[in-house]
Description:
Blueprint: E1 11-12, H1 25-36, E2 48-56, H2 74-86, E3 89-93, H3 94-100, H4 109-117, E4 125-130, H5 137-140, E5 148-152, H6 157-167, E6 172-174, H7 181-190, E7 195-198, H8 202-210, E8 216-222, E9 244-251, E10 256-262
Parallel strand pairs: 1-9, 2-7, 2-8, 3-4, 3-7, 4-5, 5-6
Antiparallel strand pairs: 8-10, 9-10
Helix pairs in contact: 1-2
Amino acid sequence: MTAYPGFPTRTTLRELIPTGRLLPYELGEPTLTALYDSGPLTDPHGIRVQANMVTTIDGAVTGAHGSSREISSPADMRVFSVLRSLADAVVVGAGTARAEGYTRLTAKRAHLAQRRRRGQADVPALVLITASGRIDTDRLDAAGTSDVIVHTSCADEVALDRLRGYCGDGNVVAHADDVSPAAVLADLRARGMRRVLCEGGPAVLGAWIQAGAIDELCLTVSPLITGTGPGLLSGPTFDPPLRARPLSQLTDGSTAIHRLQLGSP
Length: 265
Protein backbone atom coordinates (compact mmCIF):
# COMPACT_ATOMS: atom_id res chain seq x y z
CA MET A 1 0.00 0.00 0.00
CA THR A 2 1.33 3.44 -0.92
CA ALA A 3 0.76 6.27 1.54
CA TYR A 4 0.97 9.98 0.96
CA PRO A 5 4.10 11.59 2.41
CA GLY A 6 3.78 12.16 6.11
CA PHE A 7 1.12 9.50 6.66
CA PRO A 8 1.71 5.83 7.49
CA THR A 9 -0.01 3.14 5.48
CA ARG A 10 -2.17 2.34 8.50
CA THR A 11 -3.14 5.23 10.77
CA THR A 12 -4.81 4.50 14.07
CA LEU A 13 -7.58 6.63 15.51
CA ARG A 14 -6.97 5.24 18.99
CA GLU A 15 -5.14 8.47 19.86
CA LEU A 16 -7.87 10.53 18.22
CA ILE A 17 -10.86 8.60 19.54
CA PRO A 18 -10.14 6.90 22.87
CA THR A 19 -12.76 4.49 24.13
CA GLY A 20 -15.99 6.26 24.99
CA ARG A 21 -14.66 9.80 24.55
CA LEU A 22 -13.78 12.07 21.65
CA LEU A 23 -10.65 14.15 22.00
CA PRO A 24 -10.98 17.90 21.38
CA TYR A 25 -11.32 18.89 17.73
CA GLU A 26 -7.98 20.68 17.57
CA LEU A 27 -6.05 17.49 18.43
CA GLY A 28 -7.53 15.26 15.75
CA GLU A 29 -9.44 16.94 12.95
CA PRO A 30 -6.53 18.85 11.36
CA THR A 31 -4.80 15.49 10.81
CA LEU A 32 -7.93 13.94 9.30
CA THR A 33 -8.53 16.99 7.12
CA ALA A 34 -4.98 16.90 5.77
CA LEU A 35 -5.29 13.17 5.05
CA TYR A 36 -8.58 13.40 3.14
CA ASP A 37 -7.48 16.53 1.31
CA SER A 38 -4.17 15.01 0.19
CA GLY A 39 -3.44 14.01 -3.37
CA PRO A 40 -4.09 15.76 -6.69
CA LEU A 41 -7.35 16.92 -8.17
CA THR A 42 -7.58 14.10 -10.68
CA ASP A 43 -10.05 15.47 -13.23
CA PRO A 44 -8.37 17.23 -16.20
CA HIS A 45 -10.39 20.33 -15.34
CA GLY A 46 -9.34 20.26 -11.69
CA ILE A 47 -12.27 18.66 -9.89
CA ARG A 48 -12.17 15.86 -7.33
CA VAL A 49 -15.10 13.55 -6.62
CA GLN A 50 -15.03 11.63 -3.37
CA ALA A 51 -17.78 9.22 -2.36
CA ASN A 52 -18.55 8.43 1.26
CA MET A 53 -20.49 5.37 2.41
CA VAL A 54 -20.81 3.19 5.49
CA THR A 55 -21.52 -0.53 5.34
CA THR A 56 -21.77 -3.49 7.68
CA ILE A 57 -19.48 -6.47 7.28
CA ASP A 58 -22.34 -8.31 5.54
CA GLY A 59 -22.66 -5.47 3.03
CA ALA A 60 -25.77 -3.59 4.21
CA VAL A 61 -25.79 0.21 3.99
CA THR A 62 -28.69 0.70 6.42
CA GLY A 63 -29.87 -0.91 9.62
CA ALA A 64 -33.18 -2.68 10.18
CA HIS A 65 -35.08 0.62 10.22
CA GLY A 66 -33.65 1.92 6.95
CA SER A 67 -31.10 4.45 8.17
CA SER A 68 -27.32 4.50 7.81
CA ARG A 69 -27.13 6.12 11.26
CA GLU A 70 -27.98 2.72 12.74
CA ILE A 71 -24.68 1.29 11.48
CA SER A 72 -22.48 4.35 11.94
CA SER A 73 -20.07 5.14 14.78
CA PRO A 74 -18.36 8.20 16.32
CA ALA A 75 -15.26 7.52 14.20
CA ASP A 76 -17.35 7.29 11.02
CA MET A 77 -19.16 10.53 11.86
CA ARG A 78 -15.88 12.37 12.34
CA VAL A 79 -14.71 11.35 8.88
CA PHE A 80 -18.18 12.18 7.50
CA SER A 81 -17.90 15.70 8.93
CA VAL A 82 -14.36 16.19 7.57
CA LEU A 83 -15.36 15.07 4.08
CA ARG A 84 -18.29 17.48 4.03
CA SER A 85 -15.99 20.25 5.25
CA LEU A 86 -13.85 19.77 2.13
CA ALA A 87 -16.76 19.77 -0.35
CA ASP A 88 -18.19 22.53 -2.49
CA ALA A 89 -21.19 20.33 -3.24
CA VAL A 90 -22.75 17.23 -1.67
CA VAL A 91 -24.55 15.04 -4.21
CA VAL A 92 -27.21 12.55 -3.14
CA GLY A 93 -30.20 10.80 -4.64
CA ALA A 94 -33.54 12.30 -3.62
CA GLY A 95 -34.78 8.91 -2.38
CA THR A 96 -31.80 8.57 -0.07
CA ALA A 97 -32.28 12.16 1.10
CA ARG A 98 -35.88 11.33 2.03
CA ALA A 99 -34.99 8.05 3.75
CA GLU A 100 -32.15 9.61 5.73
CA GLY A 101 -34.04 12.79 6.63
CA TYR A 102 -31.68 15.23 4.90
CA THR A 103 -32.10 18.94 5.53
CA ARG A 104 -30.30 21.84 3.94
CA LEU A 105 -26.66 21.66 5.00
CA THR A 106 -25.44 23.71 7.93
CA ALA A 107 -22.21 25.67 8.27
CA LYS A 108 -19.97 24.07 10.91
CA ARG A 109 -18.07 26.51 13.12
CA ALA A 110 -15.15 24.10 13.50
CA HIS A 111 -14.52 24.11 9.74
CA LEU A 112 -15.34 27.70 8.79
CA ALA A 113 -11.80 29.08 8.94
CA GLN A 114 -10.31 26.39 6.70
CA ARG A 115 -13.17 26.72 4.17
CA ARG A 116 -12.65 30.47 3.99
CA ARG A 117 -8.90 30.04 3.56
CA ARG A 118 -9.62 27.83 0.55
CA GLY A 119 -12.03 30.41 -0.85
CA GLN A 120 -15.07 28.16 -0.36
CA ALA A 121 -18.56 29.17 0.69
CA ASP A 122 -19.30 28.63 4.38
CA VAL A 123 -21.52 25.64 3.57
CA PRO A 124 -21.58 23.21 0.63
CA ALA A 125 -24.51 23.18 -1.78
CA LEU A 126 -26.86 20.21 -1.54
CA VAL A 127 -27.35 18.61 -4.97
CA LEU A 128 -30.33 16.26 -5.32
CA ILE A 129 -30.74 13.81 -8.21
CA THR A 130 -34.34 12.83 -8.91
CA ALA A 131 -36.11 11.14 -11.82
CA SER A 132 -39.57 12.01 -10.50
CA GLY A 133 -38.91 15.63 -9.57
CA ARG A 134 -40.18 14.90 -6.07
CA ILE A 135 -38.21 16.28 -3.13
CA ASP A 136 -39.18 16.63 0.53
CA THR A 137 -39.18 20.42 0.83
CA ASP A 138 -40.68 20.49 4.33
CA ARG A 139 -37.94 18.26 5.69
CA LEU A 140 -35.22 20.11 3.76
CA ASP A 141 -36.31 23.39 5.32
CA ALA A 142 -36.28 21.99 8.87
CA ALA A 143 -32.65 23.08 9.31
CA GLY A 144 -29.64 24.44 7.48
CA THR A 145 -28.90 27.27 5.09
CA SER A 146 -27.34 25.71 1.99
CA ASP A 147 -28.52 26.17 -1.56
CA VAL A 148 -30.44 23.22 -3.00
CA ILE A 149 -29.65 22.32 -6.61
CA VAL A 150 -31.85 19.75 -8.34
CA HIS A 151 -30.91 17.66 -11.37
CA THR A 152 -33.93 15.85 -12.75
CA SER A 153 -35.16 13.93 -15.78
CA CYS A 154 -38.76 14.88 -14.92
CA ALA A 155 -40.57 16.39 -17.94
CA ASP A 156 -43.68 17.54 -16.06
CA GLU A 157 -43.69 21.34 -16.35
CA VAL A 158 -45.90 21.73 -13.29
CA ALA A 159 -43.41 19.77 -11.20
CA LEU A 160 -40.49 21.67 -12.71
CA ASP A 161 -42.13 25.02 -11.98
CA ARG A 162 -42.68 23.89 -8.39
CA LEU A 163 -39.00 23.00 -8.11
CA ARG A 164 -37.93 26.34 -9.60
CA GLY A 165 -40.14 28.16 -7.12
CA TYR A 166 -38.40 26.36 -4.28
CA CYS A 167 -34.77 26.23 -5.48
CA GLY A 168 -34.62 29.23 -7.79
CA ASP A 169 -34.63 29.14 -11.61
CA GLY A 170 -30.88 28.62 -11.93
CA ASN A 171 -30.81 25.76 -9.45
CA VAL A 172 -33.07 23.35 -11.34
CA VAL A 173 -31.44 21.51 -14.22
CA ALA A 174 -33.81 19.43 -16.37
CA HIS A 175 -32.39 16.59 -18.47
CA ALA A 176 -34.04 15.05 -21.52
CA ASP A 177 -32.69 11.62 -20.57
CA ASP A 178 -31.41 10.03 -17.37
CA VAL A 179 -29.30 12.35 -15.23
CA SER A 180 -25.72 11.46 -16.10
CA PRO A 181 -22.79 12.00 -13.73
CA ALA A 182 -20.94 13.86 -16.50
CA ALA A 183 -23.81 16.33 -16.89
CA VAL A 184 -24.02 16.95 -13.14
CA LEU A 185 -20.26 17.50 -12.87
CA ALA A 186 -20.26 19.82 -15.89
CA ASP A 187 -22.93 21.93 -14.23
CA LEU A 188 -21.09 22.05 -10.91
CA ARG A 189 -17.82 22.87 -12.66
CA ALA A 190 -19.56 25.76 -14.44
CA ARG A 191 -20.65 27.04 -11.02
CA GLY A 192 -17.01 27.13 -9.92
CA MET A 193 -17.24 24.03 -7.73
CA ARG A 194 -14.14 21.85 -7.65
CA ARG A 195 -14.67 19.48 -4.71
CA VAL A 196 -17.66 17.16 -4.91
CA LEU A 197 -18.81 14.61 -2.34
CA CYS A 198 -21.20 11.87 -3.45
CA GLU A 199 -23.23 10.33 -0.61
CA GLY A 200 -25.16 7.77 -2.65
CA GLY A 201 -27.41 5.90 -2.21
CA PRO A 202 -26.62 2.58 -3.89
CA ALA A 203 -28.21 3.42 -7.27
CA VAL A 204 -26.48 6.80 -7.56
CA LEU A 205 -23.16 5.39 -6.37
CA GLY A 206 -23.40 2.48 -8.82
CA ALA A 207 -24.12 4.81 -11.74
CA TRP A 208 -21.30 7.17 -10.80
CA ILE A 209 -18.74 4.39 -10.39
CA GLN A 210 -19.86 2.80 -13.65
CA ALA A 211 -19.34 6.15 -15.40
CA GLY A 212 -15.83 6.49 -13.95
CA ALA A 213 -16.91 9.64 -12.10
CA ILE A 214 -15.67 8.67 -8.61
CA ASP A 215 -12.01 9.34 -7.90
CA GLU A 216 -11.98 8.12 -4.30
CA LEU A 217 -14.32 5.87 -2.35
CA CYS A 218 -14.24 6.58 1.39
CA LEU A 219 -15.75 3.48 2.93
CA THR A 220 -16.43 2.77 6.60
CA VAL A 221 -16.95 -0.88 7.50
CA SER A 222 -18.79 -1.23 10.81
CA PRO A 223 -18.25 -4.43 12.82
CA LEU A 224 -21.94 -5.34 12.54
CA ILE A 225 -24.04 -8.02 10.85
CA THR A 226 -27.62 -6.95 10.14
CA GLY A 227 -28.94 -9.23 7.41
CA THR A 228 -30.61 -6.19 5.84
CA GLY A 229 -30.29 -4.57 2.42
CA PRO A 230 -29.68 -2.81 0.18
CA GLY A 231 -26.04 -3.42 -0.63
CA LEU A 232 -23.38 -0.84 -1.32
CA LEU A 233 -24.14 -0.67 -5.06
CA SER A 234 -27.20 -1.37 -7.17
CA GLY A 235 -27.37 -1.45 -10.95
CA PRO A 236 -24.07 -2.18 -12.66
CA THR A 237 -22.12 -5.41 -12.84
CA PHE A 238 -18.37 -5.13 -13.32
CA ASP A 239 -16.80 -7.93 -15.35
CA PRO A 240 -13.91 -8.02 -14.80
CA PRO A 241 -14.17 -6.47 -11.33
CA LEU A 242 -13.13 -2.85 -10.96
CA ARG A 243 -9.92 -2.69 -8.96
CA ALA A 244 -9.44 -0.14 -6.18
CA ARG A 245 -6.08 1.04 -4.83
CA PRO A 246 -5.92 1.54 -1.05
CA LEU A 247 -4.75 5.02 -0.05
CA SER A 248 -5.22 4.91 3.72
CA GLN A 249 -6.82 2.95 6.54
CA LEU A 250 -8.04 4.29 9.85
CA THR A 251 -9.38 2.41 12.84
CA ASP A 252 -10.80 3.15 16.25
CA GLY A 253 -10.09 -0.41 17.29
CA SER A 254 -13.26 -1.89 15.77
CA THR A 255 -14.49 0.23 12.86
CA ALA A 256 -12.34 0.09 9.71
CA ILE A 257 -12.28 3.25 7.61
CA HIS A 258 -10.86 2.87 4.12
CA ARG A 259 -9.93 5.42 1.47
CA LEU A 260 -9.68 3.85 -1.97
CA GLN A 261 -8.67 5.28 -5.33
CA LEU A 262 -10.92 4.13 -8.15
CA GLY A 263 -9.99 3.93 -11.80
CA SER A 264 -12.20 4.13 -14.86
CA PRO A 265 -14.22 0.95 -15.52
